[in-house]
Design goal:
Largest sheet: none
Number of domains: 1
Shape: globular
Number of strands: 0
Radius of gyration: 17 Å
Strand content: under 5%
Structural class: mainly alpha
């Protein structure tokens, strides 16, 4: 049976859609985990996502309320959900299950440990206190595990 160009595009669209939905699920999981951690530790919600985009695009939120809303938008709409596309790529490469989730986690956490210091929004990762490594590592692990399970669930063949 010959595969048509339309079938290839359709499969690619499904794969991208599954990744975005998996990223959305992972973002919901890390957000819930952060809410628990914030309630437990009493820290304020992070505006780092907004600050990163402000630096990259050269824009500035007009006040703290807008910065908080912008941080939430970046967290959900750009950063968290779009990392699901990486999960799609892993699926296209034939990786699924624990191996794919582990690679996904290492990529996300690795990117955070490089990106934030490079934007001067955090010290180099080697200077982070152990608590920050645990908080960031566990949060991103939660994201990758939930995103991976959702992606794999949507990828099962009937």
């Amino acid at each position: 049976m010959t595969t048509t160009f339309g079938q290839i595009l359709g499969e690619l669209g499904c794969t991208i859609g599954k990744g975005l939905l998996a990223g959305l699920a992972g973002t919901a999981a890390i957000t819930a985990g952060q809410a628990v951690e914030i309630a437990w530790t009493g820290r304020q919600p992070s505006t780092t996502p907004a600050e990163a985009v402000e630096k990259v695009l050269g824009i500035k939120a007009v006040d703290d309320e807008h910065k908080a809303r912008f941080a939430n938008l970046v967290h959900w709409g750009y950063y968290g959900t779009s990392w699901g596309l990486f999960r799609s790529w892993l699926g296209l490469m034939g990786l699924h299950g624990t191996a794919a989730s582990l690679i996904h986690w290492l990529a996300i956490w690795g990117a955070a440990t490089v990106m934030l210091p490079s934007l001067e929004l955090a010290p180099p990762a080697r200077e982070w206190p152990a608590k920050m490594h645990v908080t960031e590592g566990v949060g991103h692990l939660l994201y990758a595990e939930v995103a991976g399970r959702v992606y794999d669930l949507m990828s099962q063949r009937q």
